[in-house]
Amino acid sequence: MHSHFFPPIAREEAARLDAQHAPWLQIDADGERGMIMTGEKRFRPVYRALWDPAARIAEMDALGVDIQLMCATPVMFGYGYGAAAAHDWAARMNDHALELCAHAPQRLMALAQVPLQDVELACREATRAHRAGHRGVQIGNHLGPRDLDDEHLVTFLTHCANEGIPVLVHPWDMMTDGRMKKWMLPWLVAMPAETQLSMVSLILSGAFERIPKSLKLCFAHGGGSFAFLLGRVQNAWEQRDIVREDCPNPPVSYLERFHVDSAVFDEGALRLLVETMGEDHVLLGSDYPFPLGELKIGDLVAHHPQLSETAKAKILGANAQRFFGLPVNIAHAS
Predict the structure, then answer these.
(1) What residue stretches are annotated with the Amidohydrolase-related domain (predicted)?
(2) pLDDT tens digits for 37-67?
(3) Which residues pair with 217 in a beta bridge?
(4) Which pLDDT score, from 0 to 100, does residue 178 have?
(5) Which of helix, strand or coil describes residue 78?
Protein backbone atom coordinates (compact mmCIF):
# COMPACT_ATOMS: atom_id res chain seq x y z
CA MET A 1 0.00 0.00 0.00
CA HIS A 2 3.04 2.29 -0.13
CA SER A 3 4.34 2.44 -3.67
CA HIS A 4 4.95 5.48 -5.83
CA PHE A 5 4.20 6.60 -9.36
CA PHE A 6 5.11 9.57 -11.50
CA PRO A 7 3.03 10.00 -14.65
CA PRO A 8 4.69 10.89 -17.97
CA ILE A 9 4.25 14.63 -17.40
CA ALA A 10 5.65 16.68 -20.26
CA ARG A 11 7.48 19.88 -19.49
CA GLU A 12 4.68 21.84 -21.15
CA GLU A 13 2.14 20.42 -18.71
CA ALA A 14 4.40 21.12 -15.74
CA ALA A 15 4.78 24.70 -16.96
CA ARG A 16 1.09 25.25 -16.34
CA LEU A 17 2.00 25.08 -12.66
CA ASP A 18 5.47 26.64 -12.78
CA ALA A 19 7.85 26.73 -15.75
CA GLN A 20 10.90 27.16 -13.51
CA HIS A 21 10.41 24.55 -10.78
CA ALA A 22 7.44 22.21 -11.37
CA PRO A 23 8.32 18.51 -11.79
CA TRP A 24 8.16 16.73 -15.15
CA LEU A 25 9.50 13.51 -16.63
CA GLN A 26 12.30 13.29 -19.14
CA ILE A 27 12.25 9.81 -20.70
CA ASP A 28 15.30 8.39 -22.47
CA ALA A 29 15.06 7.44 -26.13
CA ASP A 30 14.88 3.73 -25.31
CA GLY A 31 11.88 4.30 -23.04
CA GLU A 32 13.43 2.29 -20.21
CA ARG A 33 15.04 5.00 -18.10
CA GLY A 34 14.20 8.56 -17.26
CA MET A 35 14.85 11.53 -15.03
CA ILE A 36 12.42 13.44 -12.85
CA MET A 37 13.21 17.07 -13.58
CA THR A 38 12.28 20.23 -11.68
CA GLY A 39 12.47 22.85 -14.39
CA GLU A 40 16.01 22.55 -15.76
CA LYS A 41 17.32 20.71 -12.69
CA ARG A 42 17.82 16.95 -12.52
CA PHE A 43 15.97 15.65 -9.45
CA ARG A 44 16.05 11.83 -9.49
CA PRO A 45 16.89 9.04 -11.96
CA VAL A 46 14.00 6.61 -12.42
CA TYR A 47 13.00 3.70 -14.57
CA ARG A 48 10.02 2.59 -16.61
CA ALA A 49 7.93 0.95 -13.88
CA LEU A 50 7.41 4.37 -12.28
CA TRP A 51 5.28 5.61 -15.18
CA ASP A 52 4.39 2.53 -17.27
CA PRO A 53 1.58 0.37 -15.81
CA ALA A 54 2.40 -2.59 -18.09
CA ALA A 55 5.98 -2.65 -16.79
CA ARG A 56 4.68 -2.35 -13.24
CA ILE A 57 2.30 -5.28 -13.67
CA ALA A 58 5.11 -7.41 -15.11
CA GLU A 59 7.26 -6.71 -12.06
CA MET A 60 4.33 -7.35 -9.73
CA ASP A 61 3.87 -10.74 -11.38
CA ALA A 62 7.54 -11.55 -10.89
CA LEU A 63 7.33 -10.52 -7.22
CA GLY A 64 4.03 -12.30 -6.53
CA VAL A 65 2.19 -9.06 -5.72
CA ASP A 66 -1.52 -9.09 -6.45
CA ILE A 67 -2.41 -5.46 -5.74
CA GLN A 68 -0.47 -2.21 -5.43
CA LEU A 69 -1.81 1.06 -4.13
CA MET A 70 0.17 3.81 -5.83
CA CYS A 71 0.67 7.31 -4.48
CA ALA A 72 2.36 10.42 -5.80
CA THR A 73 6.10 10.88 -5.57
CA PRO A 74 6.25 13.66 -2.93
CA VAL A 75 7.94 16.13 -5.28
CA MET A 76 4.51 16.26 -6.96
CA PHE A 77 2.72 17.68 -3.89
CA GLY A 78 2.85 21.34 -4.97
CA TYR A 79 2.25 22.73 -1.49
CA GLY A 80 4.36 25.83 -2.15
CA TYR A 81 2.13 27.22 -4.89
CA GLY A 82 -1.02 29.31 -4.83
CA ALA A 83 -4.10 27.40 -3.80
CA ALA A 84 -5.96 27.64 -7.13
CA ALA A 85 -2.95 26.50 -9.17
CA ALA A 86 -2.21 23.69 -6.71
CA HIS A 87 -5.85 22.56 -6.82
CA ASP A 88 -5.79 22.32 -10.61
CA TRP A 89 -2.44 20.50 -10.47
CA ALA A 90 -3.65 17.98 -7.87
CA ALA A 91 -6.81 17.22 -9.84
CA ARG A 92 -4.78 16.61 -13.01
CA MET A 93 -2.29 14.38 -11.19
CA ASN A 94 -5.17 12.41 -9.65
CA ASP A 95 -6.73 11.93 -13.06
CA HIS A 96 -3.37 10.76 -14.41
CA ALA A 97 -3.20 8.23 -11.58
CA LEU A 98 -6.58 6.76 -12.46
CA GLU A 99 -5.53 6.56 -16.12
CA LEU A 100 -2.54 4.43 -15.06
CA CYS A 101 -4.80 2.25 -12.90
CA ALA A 102 -7.20 1.71 -15.81
CA HIS A 103 -4.59 -0.60 -17.36
CA ALA A 104 -5.40 -3.20 -14.66
CA PRO A 105 -8.06 -1.80 -12.33
CA GLN A 106 -8.29 -4.91 -10.16
CA ARG A 107 -4.56 -4.77 -9.43
CA LEU A 108 -3.52 -1.12 -9.62
CA MET A 109 -5.22 1.36 -7.31
CA ALA A 110 -4.31 4.86 -6.24
CA LEU A 111 -4.23 7.33 -3.39
CA ALA A 112 -4.96 10.94 -4.27
CA GLN A 113 -3.01 14.11 -3.55
CA VAL A 114 -4.66 17.36 -2.43
CA PRO A 115 -3.82 21.10 -2.31
CA LEU A 116 -3.20 20.97 1.41
CA GLN A 117 -2.39 24.69 1.67
CA ASP A 118 -6.12 25.47 1.28
CA VAL A 119 -8.21 23.30 3.58
CA GLU A 120 -11.49 23.90 1.74
CA LEU A 121 -10.00 22.98 -1.64
CA ALA A 122 -8.14 20.03 -0.10
CA CYS A 123 -11.36 18.64 1.35
CA ARG A 124 -13.15 19.18 -1.95
CA GLU A 125 -10.49 17.36 -3.98
CA ALA A 126 -10.21 14.53 -1.46
CA THR A 127 -13.94 13.89 -1.77
CA ARG A 128 -13.96 14.22 -5.57
CA ALA A 129 -11.01 11.88 -6.00
CA HIS A 130 -12.40 9.33 -3.55
CA ARG A 131 -15.71 9.24 -5.38
CA ALA A 132 -13.85 8.94 -8.70
CA GLY A 133 -12.10 5.77 -7.55
CA HIS A 134 -9.11 6.71 -5.40
CA ARG A 135 -8.87 4.49 -2.31
CA GLY A 136 -7.70 7.30 -0.04
CA VAL A 137 -5.35 10.26 0.06
CA GLN A 138 -1.64 10.73 0.65
CA ILE A 139 -0.46 13.90 2.36
CA GLY A 140 2.91 15.24 3.43
CA ASN A 141 3.63 15.13 7.14
CA HIS A 142 3.70 18.90 7.52
CA LEU A 143 2.80 22.10 5.70
CA GLY A 144 5.75 24.44 6.11
CA PRO A 145 5.94 25.13 9.87
CA ARG A 146 2.53 23.54 10.50
CA ASP A 147 2.61 20.04 11.96
CA LEU A 148 -0.38 17.68 11.85
CA ASP A 149 -1.72 19.09 15.13
CA ASP A 150 -2.24 22.51 13.47
CA GLU A 151 -5.94 23.37 13.36
CA HIS A 152 -5.78 23.73 9.56
CA LEU A 153 -4.60 20.14 9.18
CA VAL A 154 -6.84 18.83 11.96
CA THR A 155 -9.78 20.21 9.96
CA PHE A 156 -8.65 18.24 6.91
CA LEU A 157 -8.14 15.04 8.90
CA THR A 158 -11.57 15.46 10.47
CA HIS A 159 -13.10 15.80 7.00
CA CYS A 160 -11.42 12.57 5.92
CA ALA A 161 -12.72 10.83 9.05
CA ASN A 162 -16.27 12.01 8.39
CA GLU A 163 -16.09 11.05 4.70
CA GLY A 164 -14.49 7.64 5.33
CA ILE A 165 -11.35 8.54 3.37
CA PRO A 166 -8.20 6.71 4.55
CA VAL A 167 -5.06 8.87 4.90
CA LEU A 168 -1.44 7.88 4.30
CA VAL A 169 1.08 10.34 5.75
CA HIS A 170 4.45 10.49 3.98
CA PRO A 171 7.47 12.48 5.20
CA TRP A 172 8.75 15.14 2.85
CA ASP A 173 10.74 18.40 2.79
CA MET A 174 12.91 16.94 5.52
CA MET A 175 14.36 18.99 8.35
CA THR A 176 17.98 19.91 7.77
CA ASP A 177 20.17 22.90 8.47
CA GLY A 178 22.89 21.87 6.08
CA ARG A 179 24.62 19.33 8.31
CA MET A 180 23.04 16.39 6.43
CA LYS A 181 24.71 17.26 3.15
CA LYS A 182 25.92 13.85 1.87
CA TRP A 183 25.17 10.13 1.78
CA MET A 184 21.38 10.69 1.56
CA LEU A 185 21.33 11.60 5.26
CA PRO A 186 18.08 13.60 4.95
CA TRP A 187 16.39 10.37 3.82
CA LEU A 188 18.17 8.15 6.35
CA VAL A 189 17.97 10.40 9.42
CA ALA A 190 15.49 13.24 8.92
CA MET A 191 12.72 11.18 7.29
CA PRO A 192 12.25 8.89 10.33
CA ALA A 193 12.45 11.93 12.62
CA GLU A 194 9.85 13.82 10.59
CA THR A 195 7.45 10.90 10.88
CA GLN A 196 7.92 10.52 14.63
CA LEU A 197 7.44 14.28 15.04
CA SER A 198 4.08 14.08 13.30
CA MET A 199 2.86 11.13 15.33
CA VAL A 200 3.96 12.52 18.68
CA SER A 201 2.54 15.95 17.82
CA LEU A 202 -0.89 14.42 17.30
CA ILE A 203 -0.69 12.74 20.71
CA LEU A 204 0.81 15.42 22.95
CA SER A 205 -1.06 18.37 21.42
CA GLY A 206 -4.45 16.89 22.23
CA ALA A 207 -5.32 16.80 18.51
CA PHE A 208 -6.68 13.28 18.86
CA GLU A 209 -9.27 14.61 21.28
CA ARG A 210 -10.65 16.70 18.39
CA ILE A 211 -10.30 14.19 15.53
CA PRO A 212 -12.96 11.47 15.26
CA LYS A 213 -11.75 8.00 16.18
CA SER A 214 -13.11 6.77 12.86
CA LEU A 215 -10.13 8.33 11.03
CA LYS A 216 -8.02 5.71 9.25
CA LEU A 217 -4.50 7.11 9.57
CA CYS A 218 -1.35 5.34 8.36
CA PHE A 219 2.28 6.48 8.46
CA ALA A 220 4.96 5.41 6.00
CA HIS A 221 8.32 3.77 6.72
CA GLY A 222 7.12 1.91 9.78
CA GLY A 223 6.28 5.16 11.55
CA GLY A 224 9.92 6.22 11.40
CA SER A 225 11.53 6.22 14.84
CA PHE A 226 8.19 6.24 16.71
CA ALA A 227 8.09 2.62 17.94
CA PHE A 228 11.66 2.67 19.22
CA LEU A 229 11.24 5.97 21.09
CA LEU A 230 7.68 5.59 22.38
CA GLY A 231 9.03 4.61 25.80
CA ARG A 232 10.88 7.91 26.00
CA VAL A 233 7.67 9.81 25.24
CA GLN A 234 5.70 7.79 27.79
CA ASN A 235 8.32 8.38 30.48
CA ALA A 236 8.36 12.12 29.80
CA TRP A 237 4.53 12.28 30.00
CA GLU A 238 4.63 10.54 33.38
CA GLN A 239 7.40 12.74 34.79
CA ARG A 240 6.82 16.24 33.43
CA ASP A 241 3.73 18.44 33.62
CA ILE A 242 4.82 20.39 30.55
CA VAL A 243 4.69 17.22 28.45
CA ARG A 244 1.19 16.20 29.50
CA GLU A 245 -0.43 19.65 29.81
CA ASP A 246 -2.44 19.20 26.56
CA CYS A 247 -2.54 15.39 26.52
CA PRO A 248 -5.09 13.91 28.93
CA ASN A 249 -4.14 10.25 28.46
CA PRO A 250 -0.87 8.27 28.44
CA PRO A 251 0.80 8.28 25.00
CA VAL A 252 0.63 4.48 24.77
CA SER A 253 -3.16 4.68 24.97
CA TYR A 254 -3.27 6.30 21.51
CA LEU A 255 -1.62 3.45 19.63
CA GLU A 256 -4.97 2.25 18.34
CA ARG A 257 -5.28 5.52 16.38
CA PHE A 258 -2.29 4.69 14.18
CA HIS A 259 -1.44 2.30 11.39
CA VAL A 260 2.04 2.01 9.89
CA ASP A 261 3.60 0.24 6.94
CA SER A 262 6.15 -2.56 7.18
CA ALA A 263 9.05 -0.90 5.31
CA VAL A 264 11.71 -1.20 8.03
CA PHE A 265 14.16 -3.67 6.35
CA ASP A 266 15.28 -5.49 9.50
CA GLU A 267 13.89 -8.50 11.36
CA GLY A 268 14.41 -6.97 14.80
CA ALA A 269 12.84 -3.68 13.77
CA LEU A 270 9.80 -5.44 12.30
CA ARG A 271 9.38 -7.54 15.45
CA LEU A 272 9.47 -4.39 17.62
CA LEU A 273 7.08 -2.63 15.27
CA VAL A 274 4.51 -5.43 15.41
CA GLU A 275 4.87 -5.79 19.18
CA THR A 276 4.40 -2.04 19.65
CA MET A 277 1.68 -1.23 17.12
CA GLY A 278 -0.12 -4.59 17.07
CA GLU A 279 -0.34 -7.09 14.23
CA ASP A 280 -3.64 -5.56 13.06
CA HIS A 281 -2.03 -2.15 12.53
CA VAL A 282 0.93 -2.97 10.24
CA LEU A 283 0.37 -2.95 6.46
CA LEU A 284 2.67 -4.17 3.70
CA GLY A 285 4.60 -1.20 2.31
CA SER A 286 7.65 -1.17 0.10
CA ASP A 287 8.44 2.32 -1.34
CA TYR A 288 8.51 0.61 -4.77
CA PRO A 289 9.95 1.32 -7.29
CA PHE A 290 12.67 3.37 -5.62
CA PRO A 291 15.98 1.75 -4.60
CA LEU A 292 15.54 2.69 -0.93
CA GLY A 293 12.45 0.47 -0.91
CA GLU A 294 12.14 -3.26 -0.27
CA LEU A 295 13.43 -4.85 -3.47
CA LYS A 296 11.79 -8.26 -2.86
CA ILE A 297 8.44 -6.99 -1.69
CA GLY A 298 7.04 -8.91 1.27
CA ASP A 299 10.10 -11.08 1.91
CA LEU A 300 10.86 -9.57 5.31
CA VAL A 301 7.33 -10.36 6.50
CA ALA A 302 6.88 -13.70 4.77
CA HIS A 303 10.15 -15.18 6.06
CA HIS A 304 10.22 -13.59 9.50
CA PRO A 305 11.08 -16.34 12.02
CA GLN A 306 9.12 -14.83 14.91
CA LEU A 307 5.86 -13.75 13.30
CA SER A 308 2.94 -16.14 13.37
CA GLU A 309 1.31 -17.24 10.13
CA THR A 310 -1.79 -15.31 11.21
CA ALA A 311 0.23 -12.12 11.68
CA LYS A 312 1.95 -12.59 8.33
CA ALA A 313 -1.37 -13.02 6.54
CA LYS A 314 -2.69 -9.83 8.11
CA ILE A 315 0.37 -7.77 7.24
CA LEU A 316 0.72 -9.17 3.71
CA GLY A 317 -2.83 -8.36 2.72
CA ALA A 318 -5.74 -8.57 5.14
CA ASN A 319 -4.91 -5.38 7.04
CA ALA A 320 -4.70 -3.31 3.85
CA GLN A 321 -7.93 -4.83 2.55
CA ARG A 322 -9.70 -3.74 5.72
CA PHE A 323 -8.02 -0.33 6.00
CA PHE A 324 -8.64 0.73 2.40
CA GLY A 325 -11.86 -1.18 1.82
CA LEU A 326 -10.40 -3.35 -0.93
CA PRO A 327 -12.25 -6.26 -2.48
CA VAL A 328 -11.59 -9.39 -0.41
CA ASN A 329 -11.49 -11.99 -3.17
CA ILE A 330 -9.26 -10.86 -6.00
CA ALA A 331 -7.63 -13.66 -7.96
CA HIS A 332 -4.08 -13.09 -9.13
CA ALA A 333 -4.11 -12.51 -12.88
CA SER A 334 -1.00 -12.26 -15.05
Answers:
(1) 2-326
(2) 999 999 999 999 999 999 999 999 999 999 9
(3) 167
(4) 80
(5) coil
Judge whether 211 lies within some domain: yes
What CATH number should be reported for the domain holding residue 115?
3.20.20.140
Phi, psi at residue 234, to the nearest 5°? -60, -45
Per the domain annotation, does 19 fall within a domain? no
Q: Indicate left, alpha or beta for 178 from its phi (over 0: left) and psi (-120 to 50: alpha).
A: left
φ, ψ for residue 63 (rounded to 5)? -90, -10
What are the angstrom distances between the C-alpha of 178 and each of 110, 163, 181, 186, 190?
34, 40, 6, 10, 12
How would residue 174 be classed by pLDDT, with cut points 50, 70 and 90? Answer: confident
pTM above 0.90, yes or no: yes
Asked whether 45 and 33 are in contact (CB, 8 A), the reply is yes
Instruction: Count CA within 13 A, CB hemisphere, residue 110.
Output: 28
Separation CA 333–CA 246 (nearest Å) = 51
SS3 content of the chain, % helix, strand, coil (to 5): 45, 15, 40
Strands, E assignment, 174-309:
217-219, 259-261, 282-283
Q: Is residue 27 part of a domain?
A: no
Q: How many angstroms separate the CA atoms of 233 and 239, rounded? A: 10
What is the tally of structural domains in the chain? 1
CB 254 within 8 A of CB 208: yes
Dist CA 6 CA 110 (whole Å): 12
Whether 58 is in a domain gets the answer no
Range of 153's domain? 81-324
Of 152-156, 298-302, 324-328, where does mean pLDDT reach its minimum? Answer: 324-328
Is the bond into 212 cis (omega within 30 degrees of 0)?
A: no
Cα 57 from Cα 54, distance rounded (Å): 5
